[in-house]
Hints:
The chain has helices spanning 16-27, 66-73, 89-98, 123-126, 175-186, 230-240; strands at residues 4-12, 31-33, 43-50, 53-60, 78-86, 103-111, 114-121, 130-137, 162-172, 190-191, 198-201, 206-211, 219-227, 248-251, 254-258. It is of the alpha+beta class. The longest helix is centred in the N-terminal third of the chain and has 12 residues, at 16-27.
Amino acid sequence: MGYLRLRQICLVATDLAAVEKQIEDVLGLEVCFRDPGVGKYGLHNALFAMGGTFLEVVSPTKPDTAAGRYITRRKGDGGYMYIIDCDNLEARREHFKAEGVRLVEDLNSTEWGLTGEALHLHPRDTGGCLLSVDRHSPGTDMAGSYKWAGPKWQEHDRSRTVSQIVGAAIQSADPADLAAKWSHLLQRPLRKPETGGMDIHLDQGFVHFGPLRDDRGEGLRAVFLKTKDKATILANADQAGLPRGDDHVDLAGVRFMLV
């Protein structure tokens, strides 16, 4: 089925400006793009680039949006989307269709000579969080085009502290069942790490499935960042007044693991 790579994690937040500042101040990232296309969903956003992977924050601009309902359901800001890219979207579309998975969106967008296609899978059919499988052209280079991040994202990929998103963790009341469902949909085998839970490893990145760790229900609870300077990130978190441990920072309802 070709390559399958973690390219983007999307967070949802009530106050975009506040979370954006925390990401800039603590993680040392800078906004690479604001996508006007999310306006049709009643949202505004900010994207941050790191090594060909992207962190996005979306926030509602009006009442009764899907993102706003998600914030209410999960009792605050948190992880919203796990976004993968591939080189064979047609085959994966047919696979999802054969499995009875509904599509929330089947997008095709072209601007600046760049094309982005995306299949947003219905979260009631996948569980975990909103899962998107995309394709970007021209080229398959991680440092090449990525339509959702605009035409010049590479100019803003210059953090001195963070180099790449390498994974995410999803909590569930039944992590084994959820992991098996994602494994089947993504056609990638499950692994059992020594620390517990279940993992799916992609050609770039992974997703970990574990038990519920709080009262917020099933959802994306952690993001794993490959770091260049963990000590500076932790010092920045202290200065910003954010909760943190020796290997993590809590920001926007998500635990950022520093690896």
